[in-house]
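Researcher: Please predict.
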Amino acid sequence: MIELALIVAVASLGVGLAAAYVLRAAPTLWLQLAGLALLSVAVPLAAVLFSGWVMFHMGTDLKILIVAAASASAAVIASLVLAGSITSSIRRVAASSQRFATGDLGARAPVGGAAEIAGLADSFNTMAVSIERLFDARRELVAWASHDLRTPIASLQAMVEALEDGLVAPVEYLPAFREQVRALSLLVDDLFELARIDAGALTLELRDVRVDSIVEPAIRVLEPDAQARGVALTADVDRDVTATVEPEKIERVLFNLLTNALRHTPSDGTVAVHAKRDGQEVLVEVADTGEGLPEDGAAKMFDRFWRADRARSEAGAGLGLAIARGIVEAHGGRIWAENRPQGGAKVSFTLPAGALPAR
C-alpha cells in the first residue's frame, strides 16, 4: 500500500508541474494568478478527498500523510515555477530600463510573456524611442543653431574689425549691421518659439474670426516681395468662413508658408491661398507653381532645420515650417504637403471651424 501512496504522490507532483507550465502560457497575469489560486485549492482538496478514501479502505495514517504532503507539494512547486516565470519577465524589463538609465538610449525591452508584462515592455520601448528622438532633436538643434548663428556673428566681427582698423566709415556698414542684427533676432525668436512649442507652453487666446481677415494681412505684407520676384500672389477665401484660432499665430503660419512658396516659385509663377469650410474644420491651402517637392520633401519639410536645396539654406534657418506645424497642431489641426498634379507644391492645414455667421 505504501507503493500505491507513493505513486499517487508522484502523480500529484506531475499534475502540479504540468498545470504550472500550462498556466505560464495564459495570456495575462490575472489568468495566471487566478489559475494558480484554483490549483492551490483544487490539489489539496483532491488530496483530502482521496485521503478520506484511503483512510476508509486502508486504515493507516501514514498513507494519508504521504498523499496530503504530495498534493500540497504539487501546489507549492507549481507556485514557484509560475512565480519564476513572472519574475524573469519583469527582470528583463528592469534590466533594459537600467541600461537606458545609465545612458544606453538604444536599450529596448524584449516584448513577450503575459499581456501585462508585454504591455509594460511595449510602453517602455515607446517611451525610450520618444526620449531618444528628443535627445537627437536636441543635438541637432544645438548643431544647426550654432551653424546659423556663426555666419551673422562672423560677419559682424569682420565689420567691427574693419571699423577698428579705419578701413571704412561707420555709416557705410550701418545697413549691413542692421541686417545681421535682424537675422540674429529672427533666429533667436524662432528658437524661443520652438522651445515653447516643445515644452507645451504655447498659450493661445482663441476666438472666432473670419479667415479672410487673417489671410489679407499676410498677403499685404508679402505683396511687394512677390511683385519684385514677378510672382502673382492671390487669395480666394469666402468671407463667411470663420475659425476658432488666435489670429496672430495663424497669420504667422501663413506668412511662413507664403514666404517658403515665394522662395521656390520662379518669375511669372503664381502663389495662391484657398480656404473653405469642411464640416467641423476649415481647410486652408497654399499652392504654388514652383519646382515642387523632392522625393522625401513631403515627409521632412516640417522638420526643423530641414533644407531641400542650397538656395533654401542661404535664405533662412529652416525653422519656419517647423514652427508652422507646431502652431497648427497646438490649435488641434493637421498640416501636410504634397505635389500638385499640374506642377508645383501645395501645403494644406486644418483649423477648428468657428460659429457660422448670422444670416
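Model: Residues 310-315 have pLDDT under 50 and may be disordered.
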